[in-house]
C-alpha cells in the first residue's frame, strides 16, 4: 500500500476575487502534491472556499444578492483560476455544503456536551454603524478602527470555547515537536504568545445570521473561524472514520499565509485537542507579496491578477516565477522587471536553449535516434554525478518546503549541461567519423541529464516538462524508480524541440 500524504491550503473568502497572493498558497501546495505523487505517495490535496460570516453577508448586501448567490458567483472564479493554473486538487470544499455544515455542528455539539463550550457573556467595544465588536486595543481612543466613529461598551451573549484549558498542553506539544510550526521565527512568535496565557474564545455571534446555527440555539451562529478551520476534517467525511478521514487524518502539511498563523497554530490545534483528535503534523506560514514595492490593495489599484499574467506569459512562467523568486517563508516583491528577467535568463536562455540546442544536434548527427553511450569520461561522470546530487538535494528541499532552493539546485545542473556542450563541442566531434563513439556518448549524456532535469521540473512546470519529455522520447509517467541515471534507452527517437519559452524583448 502506498503511504498517504494529506495537504491543505486555506479556504478562500468569497468576498474578494483571486489575486496572486491566493494563487501563491495554492500553487505551492500543488507543486508539493505533484512531487509527492511522483515519489509514490497516495496524495489527498484539499482546497476550497470560506463562505460564511459577516464579511460575506455584507458584501452580498452591497451587491444586492443573497450571500449564497454571491458565493456561487465568486467561487466559480476561484475554481476557473485553479483549473487554468493546473492545480491538481483532489477535492474542493465549500463551507455552505451540507457535508461541512453537518461536521461543524457535530464537533460543536460534542464540545458543548462535554463542557468545553459554554454559554457566557461577551463584553467589548462595539461600533453600531459597522456592527462590529472591537477589543480594548483595537478600539484605541474609543474610536472604531474602520470608520473612526465612537464605539460603546456592549454586552452580548456568546458561547465560549475553553481555550484557556489547553494552552499549556499546546505549548508542550510545540516544544516537543520542533517541526510542527514553521518557519522557526513564526514558531517563536507562537511560543511567546502562548506563554502569556490563553483566554477563552468567543465562538458564536448573534449580530448577524449568515453562518451555521449553534446546535440547539438558533439565535447564535457559529464563529466563522471555528466553522472555517473545521473544513480540514469535514472534507474528509468527519466524523465518519471509515473513509477518507480514517485514511488521511492527521494532515501532513497545512500551508497558510503568515497573517492567519494564530488561527492555525493556536485555535485549530486546541479545538482538535478538545475533540480528542490528533494534531496536524506541520503548519507552514509563508510570507506576503508586495507589488513593485507596495502593499497590494484595491485602493492602490495594483492588485496583480493571475489570469492576466497567465494570458500574457503562460501558466508555467507564472508557476515558476512565484516559486523561484522568493524563498518560501519570506516576504517578497512582485515586479515586472524581475519577471521578465527570469523569463529571459532562466527560462529562454538556460532551460529552453539547452533543450533546443541538444535535440537539434541529435537530429542532425544521429537522425533523431538516441545512440548508446560508450565509456564515460571524467567530464561525463561529473555531469552524471551533478544530476544525482540534484535528485537528492531536490528531495531534501521539498521536505523543507524550500521550493526556491529546489529550483536553484535544478538550474545548477541546467547550467552544467550548457557548459558541458561548450566543453565537449559536439559540432567539432561531428566533423571526424573517428569521433563517432565519443559524440554518441556526449549526446547520450546530454539528453539523459535533461530527462532527469525535466522529471524534477514537472511538479513546478507540468506543461513544459511534458513537452520536453516528449521531445526526449519519454512518454511514460514519471515515477521515482526512473529518477536514476541511464533509464533513457538507446534507439529512442528524439524530436527537435521548439523554443520552450520565447524571449521577451524590452525597450531599454
Ligand atoms: N478564509 C480565510 C482562511 C480560512 S482557512 C480555514 C482567509 N482567506 S483569504 O482569502 O483572505 O486569504 C487566503 C490566503 O491568501 C491566506 O493564506 C493569505 O495569507 C493569502 N494571501 C492574501 N494576500 C496575500 C499576499 N499579498 N501575499 C501572499 N499571500 C497572501 O484568510
Largest sheet: 6 strands, parallel
Q: What structural class do you assign from the helix and strand content?
A: alpha/beta
Name the bound molecules.
5'-O-[(L-methionyl)-sulphamoyl]adenosine
**Mean of residue pLDDT?**
95
Number of strands: 16
Instruction: Enumerate the spans where pLDDT stays under 50 for 5 or more consecutive residues.
Output: none
Assign the CATH superfamily of the domain at 335-482. Isoleucyl-tRNA Synthetase, Domain 1
CATH architectural name of the domain at 335-482:
Orthogonal Bundle
Q: Determine the fraction of residues in helical runs and give it as a percent range.
A: 40-55%
* Gap from first CA to last CA: 57 Å
DSSP strand content: 15-25%
| Rg of Cα set | 27 Å
Globular, elongated, flat, extended or rod-shaped: what is the shape? Answer: elongated
Amino acid at each position: 500500500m502506498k503511504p498517504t500524504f494529506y495537504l491543505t491550503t486555506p479556504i478562500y473568502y468569497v468576498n474578494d476575487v483571486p489575486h496572486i497572493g491566493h494563487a501563491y498558497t495554492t500553487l505551492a501546495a500543488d507543486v508539493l502534491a505533484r512531487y509527492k505523487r511522483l515519489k509514490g505517495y497516495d496524495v489527498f490535496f484539499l482546497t476550497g472556499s470560506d463562505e460564511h460570516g459577516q464579511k460575506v453577508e455584507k458584501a452580498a448586501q452591497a451587491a444586492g444578492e443573497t450571500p449564497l448567490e454571491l458565493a456561487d458567483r465568486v467561487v466559480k472564479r476561484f475554481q476557473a483560476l485553479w483549473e487554468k493554473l493546473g492545480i491538481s486538487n483532489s477535492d474542493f470544499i465549500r463551507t455552505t455544503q451540507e457535508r461541512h455544515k453537518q461536521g461543524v455542528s457535530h464537533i460543536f455539539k460534542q464540545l458543548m456536551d462535554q463542557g468545553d463550550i459554554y454559554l457566557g457573556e461577551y463584553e467589548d467595544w462595539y461600533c453600531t454603524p459597522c456592527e462590529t465588536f472591537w477589543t480594548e486595543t483595537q478600539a484605541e481612543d474609543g474610536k472604531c478602527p474602520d470608520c473612526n466613529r465612537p464605539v460603546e461598551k456592549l454586552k452580548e451573549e456568546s458561547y465560549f470555547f475553553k481555550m484557556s484549558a489547553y494552552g499549556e498542553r499546546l505549548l508542550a506539544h510545540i516544544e516537543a515537536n520542533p517541526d510542527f510550526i514553521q518557519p522557526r521565527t513564526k514558531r517563536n512568535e507562537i511560543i511567546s504568545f502562548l506563554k502569556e496565557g490563553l483566554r477563552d474564545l468567543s465562538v458564536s455571534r448573534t449580530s448577524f445570521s449568515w453562518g451555521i446555527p449553534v446546535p440547539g440555539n438558533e439565535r447564535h451562529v457559529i464563529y466563522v473561524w471555528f466553522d472555517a478551520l473545521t473544513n480540514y476534517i469535514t472534507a474528509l467525511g468527519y466524523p465518519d472514520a471509515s473513509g477518507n478521514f480514517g485514511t488521511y487524518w492527521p494532515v501532513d502539511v497545512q500551508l497558510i499565509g503568515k497573517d492567519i498563523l494564530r488561527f492555525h497554530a493556536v485555535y485549530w490545534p486546541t479545538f482538535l485537542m478538545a475533540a480528542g483528535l490528533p494534531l496536524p503534523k506541520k503548519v507552514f506560514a509563508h510570507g506576503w507579496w508586495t507589488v513593485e514595492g507596495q502593499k497590494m490593495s484595491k485602493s492602490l489599484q495594483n492588485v496583480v491578477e493571475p489570469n492576466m499574467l497567465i494570458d500574457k506569459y503562460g501558466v508555467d512562467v507564472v508557476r515558476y516565477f512565484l516559486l523561484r523568486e522568493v524563498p518560501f517563508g519570506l516576504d517578497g516583491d512582485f515586479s515586472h522587471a524581475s519577471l521578465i528577467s527570469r523569463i529571459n535568463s532562466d527560462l529562454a536562455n538556460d532551460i529552453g536553449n539547452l533543450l533546443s540546442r541538444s535535440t537539434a544536434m541529435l537530429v542532425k548527427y544521429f537522425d533523431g535516434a538516441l545512440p548508446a553511450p560508450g565509456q564515460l569520461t571524467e567530464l561525463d561522470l561529473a555531469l552524471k554525478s551533478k544530476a544525482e546530487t540534484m535528485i537528492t538535494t531536490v528531495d531534501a528541499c521539498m521536505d523543507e518546503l524550500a521550493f526556491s532552493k529546489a529550483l536553484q539546485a535544478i538550474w545548477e545542473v541546467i547550467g552544467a549541461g550548457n557548459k558541458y556542450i561548450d566543453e565537449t563541442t559536439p559540432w567539432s566531434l561531428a566533423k571526424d567519423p573517428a569521433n563517432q563513439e565519443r559524440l554518441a556518448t556526449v549526446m547520450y549524456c546530454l539528453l539523459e541529464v535533461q530527462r532527469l532535469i525535466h522529471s524534477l521540473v514537472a511538479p513546478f512546470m507540468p506543461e513544459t516538462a511534458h513537452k520536453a519529455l516528449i521531445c526526449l522520447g519519454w512518454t511514460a509517467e514519471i515515477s521515482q524508480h526512473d529518477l536514476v541515471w541511464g533509464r533513457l534507452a538507446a534507439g529512442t527517437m528524439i524530436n527537435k524541440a521548439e523554443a520552450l519559452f520565447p524571449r521577451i524583448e524590452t525597450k531599454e
